[in-house]
Amino acid sequence: MNTVLMIVLAMGIDAAVGWPDALYRRIGHPVTWMARGITALDRALNHAGLGARVRQIRGGLTVLILCALTWGIVAVLQGILPNGVVGTVIGAILAWPLIAIRSMHDHVAAVARPLIAGDLPAARLAVSMIVGRDPNLLDTAGVTRAGLESLAENTSDGIVAPVFWGAVLGLPGIATYKMINTMDSMIGHRTEKYEDFGKVAARLDDVVNLIPARLTGVIFAICGGNFTRAWAVIRADAAKHRSPNAGWPEGALAGSLNIRLSGPRQYGTHTAEEPWLNGAAPDPVASDLARGLALYRRGMVLLAAILGAMALTL
User: Where are the domains of the chain?
Assistant: First the structure.
């Protein structure tokens, strides 16, 4: 099977149709299926009163079980696909729901439309669907920053990372990556319940996103119209980010649009004193969301073109 061509086809399907609501209502989504398994093991193994070391071991066991099951099941599935074009097309259909090109664009566009029209309450409601911050505390610049930061980070872990691992390791690679990323989003939190239980999931997610995050930063820098400035922001500020990976795509976006991102943010009653990315630049305005989406579209075309060229040589 030409896994690179498979992923290019999957990207095209997702960009064209996304994951239709009618299909979601009928069968759900592979990520929701993964979430059920994560929830079941969380309930079975993560109990109050356990010591930190025991919780960490049980969290690691959860990661091992779910990754092994995902890889094994999907490897068997890939193994029974026919060779040649037919198998590649079927593989693309199976990989399609694990790439979020269309939904990423639609979620950020849902923030951009009301914000550009001056409807801050509607924009706050839309941005609350994609970030964890209290939207009522965000002004126009805050909503714009939140939308752009979500666009940058989720382009990396929702699109470039699954595309990368699918192209390299086929269907088992893309599915196992998605399981790791879903575990991180569900149990990889620094809370009393998950600080120890989710530690392995969080660290593994950092590892598997190491290359994709940097690829995303480079793609944004190339497509942003000012590579020198974007690269300078990445070099100066990416390592300051709380995440070992998110600073790359966010820094590239900040430099490309010549705005500042990240910075202090409010989570309920807690203020996170995060450093700025491209801090000398001005705050973003509503129209910068449209500019960010345009850059995103160019980036996805570039990514597909690179993979398409690679597929022709295999």
Answer: 3-313
Residues of the chain above pLDDT 70, percent: 98
Q: How far apart are CA 114 and CA 201, in angstroms?
A: 36
The string of pLDDT tens digits covering residues 25-58 is: 999 999 999 999 999 999 999 998 999 999 999 9
Q: Encoding tokens for residue 279?
A: 């801090």
